[in-house]
Amino acid sequence: MIHAVFIFNTSGIPRLTKFYTPLHQSSQTLIQKIFSLISIRPAGLCNFLDAPELEAFLGPKDGSDERWRVVYRNYATLYFVFVVDGAESELGILDLIQVFVEGLDRHFENVCELDLVFHFDEAHHILAEIIQGGLVLETNGDEISNSVKLASKARRNSFASANPLSLGSGAGGPRSGSLQTPLGWLTDRLAGVATR
């Protein structure tokens, strides 16, 4: 099971955090601990490590000898980090990180840290298309991209149909038949000539 997903920069500032299991301590302390574990590792080492130190944050593994594992990839200035248990394959998680990064790249057209800062909701949506409740739902990049595009289009149409100053671009909305500028709409309302 996937217990947590993080994206943070090379300074340790979190840009995306998602927990799938309850925490026993502060999330900020956990993020700092994980960053301290992976930031000191040389680039030549493998991208996963056992992390028994995380038991204090996430709890012991149900009496078994399994340890928490941290699987990560470093892309430019961002670390993509997954905290998993022994039931997950490390190589499978590395592939899942690649799918996540490709999904972000498709949506943001070459994702960067600022995309994650200013569009965190869209980044969370892409993650939710891939993982729900700590389990992998989808790994097909085309399906993920289509779902995210469809949701973005529905959100824009909903906003356009609910916004009285929209230009009537909302498909199926009450104002979709008339292309009226916001100034024209306001002038009609003030003059009392509101068309229905």
Written overview of the protein:
Helices cover 43% and strands 18% of the residues. The protein has 196 residues and is of the alpha+beta class. The longest helix is centred in the C-terminal third of the chain and has 22 residues, at 141-162. Mean pLDDT is 83; it is low at 169-176. The termini are far apart. It is built from seven helices and seven strands. A five-stranded antiparallel β-sheet has the order 2-1-5-4-3, with helices on both faces. It is elongated.
Q: Topology, please?
A:
Blueprint (H helix, E strand, L loop, with lengths): L1 E8 L4 E6 L7 H13 L8 E3 L4 H4 L10 E7 L2 E7 L5 H19 L4 H6 L1 H11 E2 L2 E2 L4 H22 L19 H10 L5
Helix pairs in contact: 3-5, 3-6, 5-6
Please tag this protein with its features.
two-stranded antiparallel sheet, 7 helices, 18% strand, 7 strands, alpha+beta, 196 residues, five-stranded antiparallel beta sheet
- Proportion of residues in helical segments: 40-55%
Number of strands: 7
Give the helix/strand class. Answer: alpha+beta
String of helices and strands: EEHEHEEHHHEEHH
Instruction: Give the strand order of the largest sheet, numbering strands 1, 2, ... along the chain.
Output: 2-1-5-4-3
* Oligomer status: single chain
Low-pLDDT stretches: 169-176
Question: β content, as a range?
Answer: 15-25%
Q: Give the biggest beta sheet.
A: 5 strands, antiparallel
Cα separation of the termini: 54 Å
Radius of gyration: 22 Å
The number of helical runs is 7
Mean pLDDT: 83
Overall geometry comes to elongated
